[in-house]
Design goal:
The complex is a heterotrimer of chains A (266), B (325) and C (264). With 266 residues, chain A is of the alpha/beta class. In chain A, 40% of the residues lie in helices and 26% in strands. Chain A has helices spanning 49-56, 83-89, 101-104, 111-123, 127-140, 146-150, 159-171, 189-206, 217-223, 241-246, 251-262, and strands spanning 7-18, 21-33, 38-42, 64-73, 76-77, 94-97, 177-181, 209-214, 226-231, 234-240. The chains are: A alpha/beta (266), B mainly alpha (325), C mainly alpha (264).
Amino acid sequence: MSEQPLLEITDLRVTFDLEGRRLTAVDGAQFSVARNETAVLAGESGSGKTITALAISRLLPPNAAISSGSIRFNGHDILRMSQEELTGMRGKEIAYIFQEPVSFLNPVFTIGDQIAETIVLHQRVAPQQARRQAAQLLEQVRIPDPQRVLASYPHQLSGGMNQRAFIAMSLACQPRLLVADEPTTSLDVTIEREILDLLMELKKSLGFSLLFITHNLAIARKISDRVIIMFQGKVVDQGATDTVFRCPRHHHTRELIQAYEKIGKL
Amino acid sequence: MSTYIIRRLLGIIPLLFGITVVSFFIIRLAPGKPVAVEQSLNPRVSPELRLRLEKQFGLDKPLHVQYLIWMKQIVRLDFGRSYIDSRPVMEKIAERIPLTLGLNLAALVLIFLIAVPLGVRSAIKADSAFDHSVTFLSFLFFAAPTFWLALLFMQFFSIQLGWFPISGLTSLDFEYFSAWGKAGDSIRHLFLPVFVAAIGGFAGLTRYMRSNMIEALRQPYIATARAKGLPESAVLYSHALRNALLPVVTILGLSIPGLLGGSVIFESIFALPGIGRLFYEAVMTRDYPLIMAEVVITAVLTMLGNLIADISYACVDPRISYKER
Amino acid sequence: MKRNPYLKIGLTIIGLLMLITLFAPWLRSADPAQIDAAQLLMPPSSAHPFGTDQLGRDLLTRIIYGARISLSIGFIAMGIAVAVGILLGSLAGFYGRLVDTLIMRCADVMLCFPTFFLILAVVAFLEPSIFNIMAIIGLTSWMGPARLIRGEILSLKEREFIQAERALGASDARIILRHLVPNALGPVLVNATLGISAAILLETGLSFLGLGVQPPVPSWGNILIEAKSTLGVAWWIMIFPGLAILVTILGFNFIAEGLKKIIG
């Protein structure tokens, strides 16, 4: 297909400034994600995957900088965007879900407030309308009692419920790209399964690209169309999932696959 | 939530008991009979008053009986009569409480108005020149004794600039003022005390606010707020600030002991007729009933302040209401 | 590790202060009680760098001697507070349950009394001698150190190295004194340093009210009594003692801040 990829990362370099010392967290990352594709960004802790993911929306902490490279999203050059364009795009075109939903949700606002906030912001509707939409979204993510959850605070809900609510919040404005940073790592295995199924289902019905970050190769194999392996800040392997798993090019990829096969997970 | 309040209220009872025991113990420190000492200091004491006092203190009875007698009285808010003018102690205190509480409340409000913006801005612009100057000023004003600041301000604003009267609550010709005039006169007299109290007290809250805000800004949900595309102002002043301000709600209640304690010197310097100055006068004249009453009452006020602080925090933090503390 | 400006500045200030107070008689041969009727209320000059007071006494000398009083009261009062606090706090933390509840309840009750009221009430009944002031301030400030020690001990009590010591048959006292308390000392040190500032401020306030250090013994607080009556006339009587207090408190607070950074 000669269609332009939705997300194109070229030679990305991200450095951190730690009390005078400069650390390179991402060293020349290069990959792309097509429309409606599920891409998995896999690697061990510290490989730079989360930093890369955050860099896409320029959500890096103040002591980090994108020192070189380019990020193109839907034809736009993200690194050249103004602050206004950036905030207009975040939540609307690119959305995120994170590892521990209860920490990533504000403890003093209700779920309903936090979901409605996005809707009011990007769709400019009245608060009551936003709340109604929020309730509908909660139904879409298969939360049984939407009204109760809307009025609840994050600490009152289970991890699985929080993650569903978070997904609802992120998909509220129908983004083109959903970046999921280890969304099921801290959940129980059964809940993990449900959330993954939910994500796949929503992807099919709403139509968005999914960039899924994980260190779990079993998940990577199951859900993705293409896989990108990162190691020590570099992309060492990438391609269609089956291809990469059958013929890994880099030794690190081989090691990872072997490790998972040994514990019978692949 | 209501169970939490009830539990807290029940927890007060041993505290009240403890307060009365300690207070009782303090008066027993007086060398010799309180009555005898008082007699030697104040020749105006009539024999009838002395007899009444001896009966009031029941000084010939064993200690625990004395305590029970005293307890029975103070439960009815009967703290006896002042040695100086024989007026009921409770009356003397009650008529002065409004001024002290009002003054301290005004000072607290001013402190909030100064400290919260300063602390928040320091946190947002952490390690900037602004932040460093605010920290420096905080240290400075924290270290300066408030009564010395009062003297400085009096020297500058009252004597050199003549903007404010030096002391007292009212001018000499207060009686002749119109209603507006009276209000204005009171404000002119109270402005300096409130201002000095605020200057002396803002430092602590500023640093507290700053560290709360920095802590809030470090939380993961701030990343979420930005990822949602919220403008920076909403991220800072809605998501972060709400969390940072939560514990500050307790400051009002928790400041009470500090403010009451400080009011002793403060009201003396500014010649304001509040309970702090009343206490000072009582100590100077060894007016034991008044001293005892103030010790007990201020302790109870402090305890109430802590209670209010705890309960208001439980009210505003959604996490507390539902968890068993 | 000395990239700690607060600690450096604080130690410098207090270090200088302590040197000054130690060598007071040699630094300034004037007698703090020396009255010079010819030099009443003189502004600062070369003979009297800080001016003189209403009785013609040299202010600089009085301030230096006042430093001795304030510093010793601060240190000793806090020493008492920390000693009592460590004792009660370790008992509460180590033995738990009834002992703990009892001691902590006492602390709660004590904390209900505004310190100044309590101290003034006691001073009303006893003589305001320097010793009494130290004792009272100390006995009303033990709650902070006690709470800290108790907290640390509670968390350290169940750690492996303590179980090991018990298994080896160490006595309670030995465990507390040699293993638990030293580990908990960090926060207590910070608290104690801040406590010294608080104690000095308390003493200053008391002396200012005439209920602390009694004249003619000079204390920064009682020198300031004169400042009130000479307001507008003798600025030096107000400025110099106040600055002395300010700088001293600042020094201790800086040390506390620096210590906080080390402890982390």
